[in-house]
Specification:
133 residues; Ferritin
């Protein structure tokens, strides 16, 4: 159960950060739906965070969540793709994205790290178990 709840927090929040970047997209359908997607994904993420908060309210739950962070934290950071992606400059040039993968990942990481610390969890090493940097 905590694994599923972790994914609400991490994965849906990832979607919200991507949708935020679509607000100024040159592709009008994407720009039009960006605010709705961002709002919905933030809501799902907050629901997941609420569940995690409940789980972390006791020592056993916090220990379990801390262990699961070893899997979900790097997976969530990798969802932004490679920092050196050859396609990102094209997407920025075409107006489909406004920032690169490293910048959006950094903003996401700062937000997530604050939320994890508020739950009394240790933030995992950002380079451990990563597929993409």
């Amino acid at each position: 159960m905590p694994t599923t709840r972790s994914t609400y927090f991490f994965v849906d929040l990832n979607g919200a950060f991507h949708a935020r970047d679509w607000r100024e997209s040159s592709y009008v359908p994407l720009a039009k739906m960006a605010a709705t997607v961002e709002r919905d994904e933030l809501g799902h993420s907050e629901m997941g965070y609420h569940f995690l908060s409940d789980i972390c309210s006791d020592r056993g739950g916090r220990t379990l969540v801390q262990a699961l962070l070893g899997k979900w934290y790097p997976a969530a950071l990798d969802m932004f793709g490679r920092s050196d992606s050859r396609n990102v400059p094209k997407f920025i040039h075409w107006g489909l994205k406004s920032v690169g993968n490293a910048e959006i990942r950094s903003a996401y990481k700062g937000y997530v790290d604050g939320k994890l610390a508020a739950l009394g969890l240790d933030v995992p090493d950002e380079r451990a178990r990563r597929r993409f940097l």
